Amino acid sequence: MEKLVYLIHQDAAAPGSDLRRALIDKATPTLREAGASQIAVNVHDEHVSQGAGVTISRSEPPIRAMVSFWLQNVDDRAPCEAALAQHSAALHGYLTVESRPVVHSPPLGERAPGANLVTPINKKADISYEQFIGLWTHEHKRVACETQSTFAYVRNAVVRPLTAAAPQRDGIVEESFPIEALSDPHVWYDCDDDDEYKRRLKRMMDSVNAFLDLGVLESIPMSEYWLG
Fold first, then answer.
1. CA 145 to chain centre
2. With CB atoms 3.0 to 4.6 Å apart as the test, which of 35, 95, 138, 200 could cross-link to 159 if both were Cys?
3. Mean pLDDT over the full length of the chain
4. DSSP states of 57-70 as a string?
């Protein structure tokens, strides 16, 4: 079994609710017919509209959704890509290795609680891949879990791109937060006062600056729909 992750770009003015319905009602049945399982649809829709302050978007058109699923053989992905491409201005796919440092169980077929922050990442140019993996999977995991209100954490380490135009990415991170965190940094950093917030924020920024190229990082809050 192999995990495939697709980032779906669409015009910023296109309603997220329309994209959600298209991916769940139209694309997902084709994915299933092609052998996909453990399907998850994440969409920047109306339920995360308060997340503008935590959104980092650099692509044009922007990333509006992420669809992930598992296949027995990545070579059989063509029908899946064709189904997703029908609802994308640009479709960027990746073969990944999944780790779940913090596990949650979203409800089947319904919107999961909170917001899922989808973050494609690249390593800093001046560190090795081995250093990047070490910092990401050890030091940064500890910092993230100790400073934030994260209740789910998925690391998708990119093995290789699957679509011709996909930009180089070293990972795609999913972190679930309480919905209030999108507009309240104290909720995001799981603290009650400004001094503790500043301490936790500094610790987080020191950690990400040690291993990530922040100049190309994107981060988009989405609603998660676990379809199984």
1. 17
2. 95
3. 97
4. --SSSPEEEEEEEE
Rg (C-alpha) for the chain, rounded Å, is 17
Q: Does domain 2-226 have CATH number 3.30.70.100?
A: yes
Identify the bridge partners of residue 174 per DSSP, sorted by sequence position. 118, 154
Q: Where are the beta strands (DSSP E) in 51-134?
A: 63-71, 90-102, 115-121
Could you tell me the two tokens for 98?
């999944």
- Per domain, the residue ranges of the chain are 2-226
The torsion defined by the Cα of 170, 46, 79 and 218, in degrees rounded to 10, comes to -10
The pTM (predicted TM-score) of the whole model is 0.97
Distance, CA of 34 to CA of 54 (rounded, Å): 36
Nearest C-alpha neighbor of 115 from the set 38, 50, 212: 50
Query: Using CA atoms, how far apart are residues 28 and 23, in angstroms rounded to an integer?
Result: 6
Task: Average the pLDDT over 207-228 and give the result.
Answer: 97
d(CA 161, CA 43): 21
